[in-house]
TrEMBL record:
Protein's name according to its UniProt entry: ATP-binding cassette domain-containing protein
SMART domains: AAA
InterPro entries reported in the protein's UniProt record: AAA+_ATPase (IPR003593), ABC_transporter-like_ATP-bd (IPR003439), ABC_transporter-like_CS (IPR017871), P-loop_NTPase (IPR027417)
GO MF annotation, one: ATP binding
Key words, A-Z: ATP-binding, Nucleotide-binding, Transport
Residues annotated as domain ABC transporter: 21-252
Biological source species: Acidiferrimicrobium australe
Family: Belongs to the ABC transporter superfamily.
Any single Pfam family the record assigns to this protein: ABC_tran
SUPFAM superfamilies: P-loop containing nucleoside triphosphate hydrolases
Length: 328
């Protein structure tokens, strides 16, 4: 899927059978504020899809609409190929979610809390409950701490118990809102490994984050939100490739080199200590080899040559006009 950089109304994506989530023109207004504004998401089945955006950009509101927790003001969406909200009863049992942390009782153990959740699900057969609880606890690495009271759990353990509650049934899609928010590096690593684990079993995972590093480490795809609007989406590789490349050449005479590259028609030519760099327009007539040839023919000594692509961070800052937290 090619990245779509969208600045004036996102195109409505085609409804593809292979997509776990599709939204078209999804919009939520709170009074005058458009918290989510015409969002068209396309989340391929089997992807680990990062929903990235600064605080307040509309991620949680989008997720709450996807899950039917609030109604959109406009737009439509489907989960696992089923039109929502009409097919909620068929689709939602196959969707696990972690939004705003489930309410657990502090004085009950993790396992007892989970048992309460399991008992509340209509198809939770009693005879198989023990196996379900043990399976979910094992999945999130809480077997040893299963009988500890919830109030003694670390933030990471609490978050993992939340995930366990989402995993009591086999799921085709997991929707996780900021699953590592507020966690220390160790807890973050644990959740990240768990996500990789779940994804390797074929579960589609849609997770929101305001941390670019989170998305880069675990996701195959990403979408970027800013002020309620979807600015871009695609595979991480496609998003990276969408940024404009620059050629950077080590030279003995940057001033002369600047003139030569300018005459070639390159834009944004910048000379710095021992180097000259310029923008390489994608598909344009001038590539790095041609730059090098022109410089040498013009009497400039070339000591190094590199094509530099902007990082994802550069791209996202350019799209949103805001800095992202790139590390915790
Ligand atoms: N119930 C509500 N009533 C009024 N405004 C709301 C409501 N819920 C969200 N908003 C507003 O909608 C915008 C988007 O909020 P949202 O929580 O979806 O963003 P977010 O990207 O998830 O940010 P964060 O990571 O901080 O939760 C914000 O301006 C927020 O104040």
């Amino acid at each position: 899927m090619l990245p779509t950089a969208v600045h004036s109304g996102p195109p409505a994506p085609r409804l593809a059978a292979g997509d776990a989530i599709v939204t078209e023109g999804l919009t939520k207004r709170f009074g005058e504020v458009a918290a989510v504004d015409g969002v068209g998401l396309q989340v391929p089945t089997g992807s680990v899809f990062g929903f990235l955006g600064p605080n307040g950009s509309g991620k949680t509101t989008t997720i709450r609409m996807l899950l039917g927790l609030i109604s959109p003001t406009a737009g439509s969406w489907s989960l696992l190929g089923r039109e929502m909200p009409a097919a909620a009863e068929a689709a939602l049992p196959r969707v696990g979610a972690l939004v705003e942390g489930p309410a657990f009782y502090p004085w009950l153990s993790g396992r007892d809390n989970l048992a309460r959740f399991d008992a509340a699900v209509p198809d939770g057969q009693r005879a198989t409950r023990t196996a379900r609880l043990d399976g979910a606890l094992a999945r999130v690495g809480l077997t040893a701490a299963a009988h500890k009271r919830y109030r003694a759990y670390s933030l990471g353990m609490r978050q993992r118990l939340g995930l366990a509650s989402a995993l009591l049934r086999p799921r085709d899609l997991l929707i996780l809102d900021e699953p590592t928010n507020g966690m220390d590096p160790q807890g973050t690593r644990e959740i990240r490994n768990l996500i990789r684990d779940l994804a390797s079993d074929g579960t589609t995972i849609f997770l929101s984050s305001h941390l670019l590093s989170e998305i880069e480490q675990v996701c195959t795809h990403a979408a970027v939100m800013s002020q309620g609007r979807l600015l871009a989406q695609g595979t991480l590789a496609d998003l990276r490739a969408a940024g404009e490349a620059r050629v950077r050449v080590g030279v003995d005479d940057p001033t002369r080199a600047t003139g030569i590259l300018g005459r070639l028609g390159l834009r944004d030519v910048v000379a710095s200590d021992g180097h000259v760099s310029a923008r390489l327009d994608a598909g344009g007539p001038v590539d790095a080899a041609r730059c090098c040839r022109a410089l040498v023919e013009g009497g400039v000594e070339v000591s190094s040559l590199a094509t530099v692509r902007p990082s994802l961070e550069d791209l996202f800052v350019a799209l949103t006009g805001e800095g992202f937290d790139v590390a915790r």
